[in-house]
Amino acid sequence: MQRIIKIFVDADACPVKQEILDVAHLFDTPVLFVACYAHISNNKRGEWVYIEQGHDSVDFYIFQHVQAGDIVVTQDMGLASLLLKKEVHVLSPRGELLEDYQMESILFTRYVSAKERRTGHFSKGPKALSKTDRHRFFEMLQKLLSNLTGKKEFISNKKYDTEL
């Protein structure tokens, strides 16, 4: 019997929760949102786990409970790097499926940026999530779940298609 794939979401600042729920429903895939108590949601869809607020507490929970083959949606590149070593599929909210070979460069850039901030040099930060980013995420999650589950059903995301 094949193990059921689960989607874990680093939910504190995840901007694509609705897209995750829509795609997961299509593929009958369980979703676990993990957040700190400070970010309690009224959303009743998906399963929610709340963790005591603390440095990287959500990351530690996800790392301890995820299994090889699961999917994690996160913006945290430190967490992503650890998860890729566990053979977990990591997807950014912008629809980028991360690979282990990318992590050295990503983490080095993050290190340099943090070093610059400590000396008082601040960059602009990431651009706001666009409709194109949402569409890319929606399509990539469908493609990933299709490949992992063997289901070939796709839905069009008209909400985003019309504004690209």
Summarize the structure.
The protein has 164 residues and is an alpha/beta fold.
Summarize this structure as a short list of keywords or feature phrases.
164 residues, alpha/beta, 6-stranded mixed beta sheet, 43% helix
Question: What would you note in describing this structure?
Answer:
The chain is globular and about 50 Å long. It has six helices and six strands. It has a six-stranded mixed β-sheet with strand order 3-2-1-4-5-6, sandwiched between helices. The protein has helices at 17-26, 57-65, 77-85, 100-118, 131-149, 158-161; strands spanning 7-10, 31-36, 47-51, 71-73, 89-91, 97-98. The N and C termini lie far apart (41 Å). Helix 1 packs parallel to helix 5 and helix 3 (77-85) packs antiparallel against helix 4. It has 164 residues and is of the alpha/beta class.
Give the topology, please.
Elements: E1 7-10, H1 17-26, E2 31-36, E3 47-51, H2 57-65, E4 71-73, H3 77-85, E5 89-91, E6 97-98, H4 100-118, H5 131-149, H6 158-161
Parallel strand pairs: 1-2, 1-4, 2-3, 4-5
Antiparallel strand pairs: 5-6
Helix pairs in contact: 1-5, 3-4
Give the overall shape: globular
SSE succession: EHEEHEHEEHHH
Q: Mean pLDDT across all residues, rounded?
A: 83
How much strand? 5-15%
Helical residue percent band: 40-55%
Major pleated sheet:
6 strands, mixed
**What is the CA-based Rg, rounded?**
16 Å
Instruction: Give, in spatial order, the strands making up the sheet with the most strands.
Output: 3-2-1-4-5-6
Number of helices: 6
The tally of beta strands, per DSSP, is 6
**Cα distance, first to last residue?**
41 Å
Uncertain regions spanning at least 5 consecutive residues = none
Helix/strand-derived category reads alpha/beta
Give me the oligomer status: single chain
